[in-house]
Target: Amino acid transporter transmembrane domain-containing protein
Amino acid sequence: GGRTSAWGATANLLIAAAGAGVLAYPFATQAQGVVLNVVATATCAAINAFTLSIVAVAAHEAHWGGAGALGSATYEATIGAWLGRVWRRVAAGSVLLGSLGALTGFLVIMCDLVQPIVLVAAGDCDGRLGSASPGCNAALAFFAQRWVVAAVFGILMLPLTAARRLSSLSHSSLLAAASVAVVTLVLALQAGRLAPRGPPAGRRLGASDQGPWLPGQGDGWSVLSTLPIIVFALGNHLQLVPLWRDMVAPEEALGGEDKRPASALRNAEDGASDAGQALAGRRDSLSSEGASGDCAARGAVSGLDGFDAGPAGHARRLSPADVQAAEAGARGLTVARLGAAALCTLLYCSTGLVGLLAFGSKVCGDVLRSMGSPGNPAVGCEHGSASDGVAPVQPGEWAAWNMAAKGLMAIHIALAFPVIHFPCRETLLEAAAWATRAWARRPVPAGGAGDSSIGGAAEGRGTHGLRARLVVAVLLTGVCA
Model:
Protein backbone atom coordinates (compact mmCIF):
# COMPACT_ATOMS: atom_id res chain seq x y z
CA GLY A 1 0.00 0.00 0.00
CA GLY A 2 0.92 3.62 0.39
CA ARG A 3 2.11 3.38 3.97
CA THR A 4 5.67 3.42 5.20
CA SER A 5 7.09 1.01 7.76
CA ALA A 6 8.02 1.75 11.34
CA TRP A 7 11.73 1.34 10.64
CA GLY A 8 11.49 3.78 7.72
CA ALA A 9 9.79 6.40 9.89
CA THR A 10 12.38 5.78 12.62
CA ALA A 11 15.21 6.41 10.16
CA ASN A 12 13.62 9.66 8.94
CA LEU A 13 12.97 10.96 12.46
CA LEU A 14 16.48 9.98 13.53
CA ILE A 15 18.16 11.80 10.65
CA ALA A 16 15.90 14.84 11.05
CA ALA A 17 17.24 15.16 14.60
CA ALA A 18 20.81 13.85 14.27
CA GLY A 19 22.37 16.34 11.91
CA ALA A 20 25.72 18.07 12.14
CA GLY A 21 25.19 18.63 15.88
CA VAL A 22 26.75 15.23 16.51
CA LEU A 23 30.16 16.74 15.67
CA ALA A 24 29.89 19.14 18.62
CA TYR A 25 28.88 16.50 21.15
CA PRO A 26 32.42 15.56 22.29
CA PHE A 27 33.00 19.23 23.11
CA ALA A 28 29.73 19.37 25.07
CA THR A 29 30.64 16.16 26.90
CA GLN A 30 34.05 17.58 27.81
CA ALA A 31 32.48 20.76 29.21
CA GLN A 32 29.60 19.11 31.10
CA GLY A 33 31.13 15.83 32.18
CA VAL A 34 29.91 12.44 31.00
CA VAL A 35 27.25 11.95 33.68
CA LEU A 36 25.57 15.33 33.28
CA ASN A 37 25.75 15.08 29.50
CA VAL A 38 24.04 11.68 29.45
CA VAL A 39 21.35 12.81 31.91
CA ALA A 40 20.66 16.00 29.95
CA THR A 41 20.53 14.14 26.64
CA ALA A 42 18.19 11.45 27.98
CA THR A 43 15.92 14.11 29.51
CA CYS A 44 15.71 16.06 26.26
CA ALA A 45 15.06 12.84 24.34
CA ALA A 46 12.19 11.94 26.69
CA ILE A 47 10.70 15.42 26.26
CA ASN A 48 11.11 15.05 22.50
CA ALA A 49 9.25 11.72 22.45
CA PHE A 50 6.44 13.16 24.61
CA THR A 51 5.97 16.29 22.49
CA LEU A 52 6.02 14.19 19.32
CA SER A 53 3.12 12.18 20.75
CA ILE A 54 1.20 15.42 21.31
CA VAL A 55 1.79 16.47 17.69
CA ALA A 56 0.70 13.03 16.46
CA VAL A 57 -2.54 13.13 18.48
CA ALA A 58 -3.23 16.69 17.32
CA ALA A 59 -2.69 15.70 13.69
CA HIS A 60 -4.94 12.66 14.08
CA GLU A 61 -7.80 14.60 15.66
CA ALA A 62 -7.48 17.55 13.29
CA HIS A 63 -7.02 15.75 9.99
CA TRP A 64 -8.63 12.32 10.11
CA GLY A 65 -11.53 12.04 7.71
CA GLY A 66 -11.15 15.23 5.65
CA ALA A 67 -9.78 14.98 2.11
CA GLY A 68 -8.41 18.52 2.09
CA ALA A 69 -6.76 18.17 5.47
CA LEU A 70 -5.17 14.84 4.62
CA GLY A 71 -3.89 16.26 1.37
CA SER A 72 -2.00 19.05 3.17
CA ALA A 73 -0.78 17.24 6.26
CA THR A 74 1.91 19.60 7.49
CA TYR A 75 2.97 20.86 10.89
CA GLU A 76 1.50 24.31 10.32
CA ALA A 77 -1.75 22.77 9.02
CA THR A 78 -2.11 20.97 12.34
CA ILE A 79 -1.48 24.22 14.21
CA GLY A 80 -4.08 25.97 12.07
CA ALA A 81 -6.68 23.27 12.65
CA TRP A 82 -6.53 23.89 16.39
CA LEU A 83 -5.67 27.58 16.68
CA GLY A 84 -6.95 29.13 13.46
CA ARG A 85 -5.53 30.64 10.29
CA VAL A 86 -3.54 33.42 11.94
CA TRP A 87 -1.51 31.01 14.04
CA ARG A 88 -1.19 28.71 11.06
CA ARG A 89 0.55 31.45 9.11
CA VAL A 90 2.71 32.31 12.10
CA ALA A 91 3.71 28.65 12.29
CA ALA A 92 4.40 28.58 8.55
CA GLY A 93 6.70 31.58 8.91
CA SER A 94 8.53 29.88 11.76
CA VAL A 95 8.92 26.72 9.69
CA LEU A 96 10.41 28.70 6.82
CA LEU A 97 12.84 30.67 8.97
CA GLY A 98 14.00 27.66 10.96
CA SER A 99 14.32 25.38 7.94
CA LEU A 100 16.16 27.96 5.83
CA GLY A 101 18.65 28.48 8.65
CA ALA A 102 19.20 24.74 9.03
CA LEU A 103 19.56 24.18 5.29
CA THR A 104 22.05 27.03 4.99
CA GLY A 105 24.07 25.56 7.84
CA PHE A 106 24.04 22.16 6.13
CA LEU A 107 25.45 23.66 2.93
CA VAL A 108 28.19 25.49 4.84
CA ILE A 109 29.16 22.28 6.65
CA MET A 110 29.07 20.33 3.39
CA CYS A 111 31.55 22.77 1.84
CA ASP A 112 33.79 22.58 4.92
CA LEU A 113 33.81 18.78 4.70
CA VAL A 114 34.25 18.32 0.95
CA GLN A 115 36.72 21.14 0.29
CA PRO A 116 39.75 19.64 2.10
CA ILE A 117 39.05 16.20 0.59
CA VAL A 118 39.17 17.63 -2.94
CA LEU A 119 42.25 19.72 -2.16
CA VAL A 120 44.13 16.70 -0.82
CA ALA A 121 43.13 14.66 -3.88
CA ALA A 122 44.22 17.50 -6.19
CA GLY A 123 47.59 17.98 -4.48
CA ASP A 124 46.71 21.22 -2.64
CA CYS A 125 47.72 23.54 -5.48
CA ASP A 126 47.71 26.76 -3.42
CA GLY A 127 49.04 25.31 -0.17
CA ARG A 128 45.89 26.04 1.80
CA LEU A 129 46.24 22.75 3.67
CA GLY A 130 49.95 23.21 4.36
CA SER A 131 51.11 20.49 1.97
CA ALA A 132 51.33 22.08 -1.48
CA SER A 133 52.46 19.71 -4.22
CA PRO A 134 54.22 20.86 -7.41
CA GLY A 135 52.35 18.17 -9.35
CA CYS A 136 48.86 19.35 -8.43
CA ASN A 137 45.77 18.70 -10.52
CA ALA A 138 44.40 22.15 -11.32
CA ALA A 139 41.29 20.77 -13.00
CA LEU A 140 40.35 18.81 -9.90
CA ALA A 141 41.25 21.73 -7.63
CA PHE A 142 38.57 23.76 -9.44
CA PHE A 143 35.94 21.63 -7.72
CA ALA A 144 37.26 22.67 -4.30
CA GLN A 145 35.70 26.12 -4.67
CA ARG A 146 32.79 26.54 -2.32
CA TRP A 147 30.31 27.67 -4.95
CA VAL A 148 31.20 24.67 -7.11
CA VAL A 149 30.76 22.30 -4.16
CA ALA A 150 27.34 23.83 -3.41
CA ALA A 151 26.26 23.67 -7.06
CA VAL A 152 27.31 20.04 -7.53
CA PHE A 153 25.66 19.12 -4.24
CA GLY A 154 22.39 20.79 -5.26
CA ILE A 155 22.33 18.95 -8.60
CA LEU A 156 23.08 15.57 -7.06
CA MET A 157 20.45 16.02 -4.34
CA LEU A 158 17.71 17.29 -6.68
CA PRO A 159 15.96 13.90 -7.08
CA LEU A 160 15.77 13.48 -3.30
CA THR A 161 14.72 17.07 -2.57
CA ALA A 162 11.85 16.66 -5.06
CA ALA A 163 10.57 13.48 -3.40
CA ARG A 164 6.77 13.18 -3.44
CA ARG A 165 6.52 11.77 0.08
CA LEU A 166 8.82 11.94 3.08
CA SER A 167 8.54 8.19 3.56
CA SER A 168 10.30 7.65 0.22
CA LEU A 169 13.51 8.95 1.85
CA SER A 170 13.63 6.06 4.33
CA HIS A 171 16.44 4.16 2.61
CA SER A 172 18.64 7.22 2.17
CA SER A 173 18.04 8.13 5.82
CA LEU A 174 19.15 4.66 6.85
CA LEU A 175 22.37 5.12 4.87
CA ALA A 176 22.89 8.51 6.52
CA ALA A 177 22.52 6.93 9.96
CA ALA A 178 25.03 4.23 9.04
CA SER A 179 27.52 6.88 7.86
CA VAL A 180 27.49 8.83 11.11
CA ALA A 181 27.66 5.59 13.09
CA VAL A 182 30.87 4.67 11.26
CA VAL A 183 32.29 8.10 12.16
CA THR A 184 31.66 7.21 15.80
CA LEU A 185 33.50 3.92 15.26
CA VAL A 186 36.44 5.84 13.76
CA LEU A 187 36.58 8.02 16.88
CA ALA A 188 36.40 4.91 19.04
CA LEU A 189 39.31 3.40 17.11
CA GLN A 190 41.39 6.51 17.70
CA ALA A 191 40.47 6.49 21.38
CA GLY A 192 41.51 2.84 21.63
CA ARG A 193 44.88 3.48 19.99
CA LEU A 194 45.59 6.46 22.21
CA ALA A 195 44.49 4.75 25.44
CA PRO A 196 47.75 2.79 26.07
CA ARG A 197 49.72 6.06 25.90
CA GLY A 198 47.27 8.06 27.95
CA PRO A 199 45.77 11.42 26.94
CA PRO A 200 47.79 13.50 24.45
CA ALA A 201 50.47 15.72 25.94
CA GLY A 202 49.06 18.66 27.82
CA ARG A 203 45.48 17.43 27.54
CA ARG A 204 43.46 16.45 30.59
CA LEU A 205 40.80 13.88 29.92
CA GLY A 206 38.05 15.86 31.61
CA ALA A 207 37.00 19.48 31.86
CA SER A 208 38.44 19.65 35.38
CA ASP A 209 40.76 17.80 37.72
CA GLN A 210 37.76 15.69 38.77
CA GLY A 211 38.12 13.77 35.55
CA PRO A 212 35.67 13.23 32.71
CA TRP A 213 32.61 12.26 34.74
CA LEU A 214 31.46 15.48 36.44
CA PRO A 215 32.01 19.18 35.79
CA GLY A 216 34.37 20.91 38.19
CA GLN A 217 33.79 23.95 40.36
CA GLY A 218 33.65 27.15 38.37
CA ASP A 219 32.57 25.34 35.21
CA GLY A 220 28.97 26.60 35.39
CA TRP A 221 29.29 28.88 32.38
CA SER A 222 30.82 26.11 30.27
CA VAL A 223 27.93 23.84 31.19
CA LEU A 224 25.29 26.44 30.35
CA SER A 225 26.95 27.51 27.10
CA THR A 226 26.93 23.93 25.79
CA LEU A 227 23.33 23.10 26.78
CA PRO A 228 21.94 24.52 23.48
CA ILE A 229 23.95 21.85 21.66
CA ILE A 230 21.80 19.25 23.42
CA VAL A 231 18.50 21.11 23.24
CA PHE A 232 18.72 21.81 19.50
CA ALA A 233 20.07 18.34 18.72
CA LEU A 234 16.60 16.79 19.01
CA GLY A 235 14.34 18.70 16.64
CA ASN A 236 12.22 16.57 14.31
CA HIS A 237 8.66 17.77 14.95
CA LEU A 238 8.22 19.21 11.44
CA GLN A 239 8.74 15.78 9.91
CA LEU A 240 6.23 13.99 12.13
CA VAL A 241 2.97 15.11 10.48
CA PRO A 242 4.02 14.12 6.93
CA LEU A 243 5.12 10.75 8.32
CA TRP A 244 1.80 10.45 10.15
CA ARG A 245 -0.01 10.92 6.85
CA ASP A 246 2.15 8.30 5.13
CA MET A 247 1.63 5.75 7.91
CA VAL A 248 -1.95 6.36 9.03
CA ALA A 249 -3.87 7.99 6.16
CA PRO A 250 -5.67 5.80 3.60
CA GLU A 251 -4.08 5.26 0.20
CA GLU A 252 -6.42 7.63 -1.63
CA ALA A 253 -5.40 10.46 0.70
CA LEU A 254 -1.82 9.97 -0.48
CA GLY A 255 -2.72 10.80 -4.04
CA GLY A 256 -2.96 7.17 -5.16
CA GLU A 257 -5.80 5.84 -7.23
CA ASP A 258 -8.29 3.62 -5.43
CA LYS A 259 -8.12 0.41 -7.46
CA ARG A 260 -10.70 -1.58 -5.52
CA PRO A 261 -13.53 -3.03 -7.62
CA ALA A 262 -16.88 -1.28 -7.61
CA SER A 263 -18.50 -3.93 -5.41
CA ALA A 264 -15.72 -3.57 -2.85
CA LEU A 265 -16.11 0.20 -2.90
CA ARG A 266 -19.87 -0.10 -2.30
CA ASN A 267 -19.27 -2.48 0.60
CA ALA A 268 -16.62 -0.16 1.98
CA GLU A 269 -18.97 2.81 1.85
CA ASP A 270 -21.77 0.81 3.49
CA GLY A 271 -19.42 -0.47 6.16
CA ALA A 272 -17.95 2.97 6.72
CA SER A 273 -21.32 4.68 7.17
CA ASP A 274 -21.33 3.51 10.77
CA ALA A 275 -17.90 5.08 11.16
CA GLY A 276 -19.27 8.31 9.74
CA GLN A 277 -22.14 8.28 12.24
CA ALA A 278 -19.70 7.58 15.05
CA LEU A 279 -17.53 10.49 13.95
CA ALA A 280 -20.57 12.74 13.83
CA GLY A 281 -21.43 11.67 17.36
CA ARG A 282 -17.87 12.39 18.42
CA ARG A 283 -18.16 15.86 16.89
CA ASP A 284 -21.45 16.54 18.72
CA SER A 285 -19.86 15.38 21.97
CA LEU A 286 -16.90 17.66 21.44
CA SER A 287 -19.27 20.52 20.62
CA SER A 288 -20.97 20.17 23.99
CA GLU A 289 -17.58 20.07 25.68
CA GLY A 290 -16.50 23.12 23.71
CA ALA A 291 -19.55 25.02 24.93
CA SER A 292 -18.28 24.59 28.48
CA GLY A 293 -15.02 26.31 27.60
CA ASP A 294 -12.74 23.44 26.59
CA CYS A 295 -10.45 25.06 24.00
CA ALA A 296 -8.99 21.75 22.89
CA ALA A 297 -12.48 20.37 22.31
CA ARG A 298 -13.44 23.41 20.25
CA GLY A 299 -10.32 22.91 18.15
CA ALA A 300 -11.18 19.27 17.62
CA VAL A 301 -14.73 20.21 16.57
CA SER A 302 -13.47 22.59 13.91
CA GLY A 303 -10.94 20.00 12.78
CA LEU A 304 -13.72 17.41 12.41
CA ASP A 305 -15.94 19.69 10.34
CA GLY A 306 -16.55 18.18 6.92
CA PHE A 307 -16.07 14.56 7.93
CA ASP A 308 -19.40 13.42 6.55
CA ALA A 309 -20.20 16.36 4.28
CA GLY A 310 -20.53 15.14 0.70
CA PRO A 311 -19.75 11.86 -1.01
CA ALA A 312 -16.01 12.61 -1.21
CA GLY A 313 -15.60 12.70 2.57
CA HIS A 314 -13.23 10.01 3.74
CA ALA A 315 -15.52 9.17 6.65
CA ARG A 316 -17.87 7.57 4.12
CA ARG A 317 -15.12 5.60 2.37
CA LEU A 318 -13.15 4.04 5.20
CA SER A 319 -13.43 0.28 5.14
CA PRO A 320 -12.69 -1.93 8.15
CA ALA A 321 -9.39 -2.80 6.46
CA ASP A 322 -8.57 0.92 6.22
CA VAL A 323 -9.29 1.38 9.90
CA GLN A 324 -7.16 -1.61 10.88
CA ALA A 325 -4.29 -0.43 8.69
CA ALA A 326 -4.55 3.05 10.16
CA GLU A 327 -4.40 1.65 13.69
CA ALA A 328 -1.34 -0.41 12.74
CA GLY A 329 0.24 2.71 11.25
CA ALA A 330 -0.42 4.65 14.45
CA ARG A 331 1.27 1.92 16.48
CA GLY A 332 4.19 1.95 14.06
CA LEU A 333 4.51 5.71 14.44
CA THR A 334 4.67 5.29 18.22
CA VAL A 335 7.48 2.78 17.79
CA ALA A 336 9.21 5.19 15.39
CA ARG A 337 9.19 8.21 17.69
CA LEU A 338 10.33 6.20 20.72
CA GLY A 339 12.96 4.39 18.67
CA ALA A 340 14.27 7.62 17.17
CA ALA A 341 14.59 9.21 20.62
CA ALA A 342 16.45 6.18 21.98
CA LEU A 343 18.78 5.94 18.99
CA CYS A 344 19.51 9.67 19.11
CA THR A 345 20.47 9.34 22.78
CA LEU A 346 22.73 6.38 22.02
CA LEU A 347 24.36 8.04 19.01
CA TYR A 348 24.98 11.39 20.68
CA CYS A 349 26.25 10.04 23.99
CA SER A 350 28.52 7.42 22.43
CA THR A 351 30.00 9.97 20.03
CA GLY A 352 30.56 12.41 22.88
CA LEU A 353 32.24 9.79 25.04
CA VAL A 354 34.61 8.37 22.42
CA GLY A 355 35.49 11.85 21.17
CA LEU A 356 36.37 12.89 24.71
CA LEU A 357 38.44 9.74 25.27
CA ALA A 358 40.31 10.33 22.00
CA PHE A 359 41.17 14.02 22.39
CA GLY A 360 40.68 14.93 26.04
CA SER A 361 40.14 18.51 27.15
CA LYS A 362 41.57 19.84 23.86
CA VAL A 363 38.71 18.46 21.78
CA CYS A 364 37.45 20.99 19.24
CA GLY A 365 33.92 22.29 18.85
CA ASP A 366 33.93 20.27 15.62
CA VAL A 367 35.50 16.95 16.58
CA LEU A 368 36.74 16.33 13.04
CA ARG A 369 39.09 19.31 13.39
CA SER A 370 40.82 17.40 16.19
CA MET A 371 41.70 14.47 13.96
CA GLY A 372 44.60 15.88 11.94
CA SER A 373 47.28 14.40 14.21
CA PRO A 374 46.15 13.85 17.81
CA GLY A 375 49.67 13.66 19.30
CA ASN A 376 50.85 16.89 17.67
CA PRO A 377 49.81 20.05 19.55
CA ALA A 378 50.49 22.11 16.43
CA VAL A 379 47.48 20.54 14.76
CA GLY A 380 43.90 21.06 15.87
CA CYS A 381 41.16 23.62 16.27
CA GLU A 382 43.44 26.40 17.52
CA HIS A 383 45.51 26.37 14.32
CA GLY A 384 42.92 26.10 11.57
CA SER A 385 42.60 28.66 8.82
CA ALA A 386 40.30 31.44 9.96
CA SER A 387 39.36 32.26 6.38
CA ASP A 388 37.85 28.96 5.33
CA GLY A 389 37.50 26.93 8.52
CA VAL A 390 39.81 24.18 7.26
CA ALA A 391 42.22 22.73 9.80
CA PRO A 392 45.74 21.89 8.58
CA VAL A 393 46.05 18.31 7.42
CA GLN A 394 49.28 16.48 8.23
CA PRO A 395 50.54 13.51 6.22
CA GLY A 396 50.29 10.11 7.79
CA GLU A 397 47.82 7.74 9.32
CA TRP A 398 45.70 10.27 11.22
CA ALA A 399 45.24 12.47 8.16
CA ALA A 400 43.85 9.46 6.29
CA TRP A 401 41.37 8.77 9.10
CA ASN A 402 40.49 12.47 9.07
CA MET A 403 39.65 12.40 5.36
CA ALA A 404 37.63 9.19 5.74
CA ALA A 405 35.61 10.66 8.61
CA LYS A 406 34.99 13.87 6.66
CA GLY A 407 33.80 11.87 3.67
CA LEU A 408 31.39 9.85 5.80
CA MET A 409 30.01 13.00 7.43
CA ALA A 410 29.60 14.56 3.99
CA ILE A 411 27.46 11.56 2.99
CA HIS A 412 25.45 11.96 6.19
CA ILE A 413 24.85 15.68 5.62
CA ALA A 414 23.96 15.14 1.96
CA LEU A 415 21.33 12.51 2.79
CA ALA A 416 19.96 14.42 5.79
CA PHE A 417 19.49 17.58 3.70
CA PRO A 418 16.37 16.32 1.83
CA VAL A 419 14.70 15.31 5.11
CA ILE A 420 15.12 18.85 6.48
CA HIS A 421 14.22 20.27 3.08
CA PHE A 422 10.87 18.45 2.81
CA PRO A 423 8.70 20.44 5.29
CA CYS A 424 10.15 23.74 4.08
CA ARG A 425 9.32 22.87 0.48
CA GLU A 426 5.77 21.83 1.34
CA THR A 427 5.23 25.07 3.26
CA LEU A 428 6.41 27.14 0.29
CA LEU A 429 4.22 25.19 -2.13
CA GLU A 430 1.13 25.64 0.01
CA ALA A 431 1.88 29.33 0.53
CA ALA A 432 2.25 29.75 -3.23
CA ALA A 433 -1.08 28.01 -3.83
CA TRP A 434 -2.78 30.23 -1.25
CA ALA A 435 -1.25 33.38 -2.78
CA THR A 436 -2.38 32.30 -6.24
CA ARG A 437 -5.97 31.92 -5.05
CA ALA A 438 -5.85 35.26 -3.29
CA TRP A 439 -4.49 36.98 -6.40
CA ALA A 440 -7.20 35.45 -8.55
CA ARG A 441 -9.80 36.46 -5.93
CA ARG A 442 -11.11 32.96 -5.75
CA PRO A 443 -13.11 32.04 -2.64
CA VAL A 444 -11.16 30.39 0.16
CA PRO A 445 -12.49 26.87 0.96
CA ALA A 446 -14.86 26.85 3.89
CA GLY A 447 -13.85 25.42 7.20
CA GLY A 448 -13.71 28.25 9.68
CA ALA A 449 -10.86 28.36 12.16
CA GLY A 450 -10.24 24.68 11.65
CA ASP A 451 -9.70 24.94 7.88
CA SER A 452 -6.26 23.52 7.24
CA SER A 453 -6.24 24.15 3.51
CA ILE A 454 -3.77 26.96 2.94
CA GLY A 455 -2.47 24.82 0.08
CA GLY A 456 -5.60 24.28 -1.94
CA ALA A 457 -3.62 23.01 -4.91
CA ALA A 458 -2.77 19.92 -2.93
CA GLU A 459 -6.28 19.15 -1.81
CA GLY A 460 -7.88 16.06 -3.24
CA ARG A 461 -4.56 14.85 -4.65
CA GLY A 462 -2.44 14.56 -1.53
CA THR A 463 0.66 15.87 -3.28
CA HIS A 464 1.96 18.72 -5.40
CA GLY A 465 3.02 18.22 -9.00
CA LEU A 466 6.54 17.12 -9.89
CA ARG A 467 7.25 20.34 -11.77
CA ALA A 468 6.32 22.48 -8.77
CA ARG A 469 8.39 20.31 -6.43
CA LEU A 470 11.44 20.56 -8.72
CA VAL A 471 11.16 24.33 -9.06
CA VAL A 472 10.87 24.91 -5.32
CA ALA A 473 13.69 22.44 -4.61
CA VAL A 474 16.04 24.31 -6.96
CA LEU A 475 15.05 27.72 -5.58
CA LEU A 476 15.44 26.61 -1.96
CA THR A 477 18.88 25.12 -2.52
CA GLY A 478 19.96 28.19 -4.46
CA VAL A 479 18.79 30.61 -1.77
CA CYS A 480 20.53 28.62 0.97
CA ALA A 481 23.74 28.42 -1.06
